Amino acid sequence: MNLSELILNPNNFFKNLSNKEISLKTPFLIVLIFSALTAIYTYYTTSIMFKIFPADMQNMMAISTIIAAVSAFVGGFIAWLLIAGIMHIISIAFKGEGSFKRTFEFTGYGLLPNLLALCITIPIGYYFLSNVHIQPLTMGQLQNPIIVKHVMSSIIPKTMVYTNLLIGIAVTLWNLGLWTYGIKYARNLELKKAFIVALIPTVLFGAYQLYSVVKFL
């Protein structure tokens, strides 16, 4: 299997793969690495952000950081399942034919752009956050949501936010392209119908990811 063809010619990639036996090994590996990197990045960024809390609260924040990382890891697999489920259900309205397992398989391949994007955003995040100085807030300041939001926003440089935003938009469009061809061959649909089927979950998934970036603006 040549993943470079998935990047350069997704139509041929999914067309050829549709004639082979269903295998979740490679898409599972893609989602596994994506989820693991997301968890690591979440742990790192959360640990940075939680430095605003007083020293006597850091032990509790350490537990929260681990929970956030685990949630991020599990969230990658949940997203895979939900996106595949939504596309499979919508495709029924267009009289799509094919097993859910095939839809699940091809949807997993469509998350490759997210994995590749992390290989860019993680170094960028580390570059901007590694030397950031954070002054812990007092309990009184922590009770003021305006102050907390302002401090949180000040930790993340605008350059980093806008860079991640542009990468996020590019990845969302790439997701749409891959999932369009994926669902086309997974459910035997015309390209136009496949695009419509892929559009809804892509918009939902992309909007969630972009929101996680723009909330720091």
Automatic annotation (TrEMBL):
It is found in: Membrane. The chain crosses the membrane at residues 28-46, 66-94, 106-129, 161-182, 194-211. It comes from the Archaea. GO terms for cellular component: membrane. Residues 6-208 form the Yip1 domain. The keyword Metal-binding does not apply. Its main location: membrane. Keywords: Membrane, Transmembrane, Transmembrane helix. It is a multi-pass membrane protein. Signal peptide: none annotated. This is Yip1 domain-containing protein.
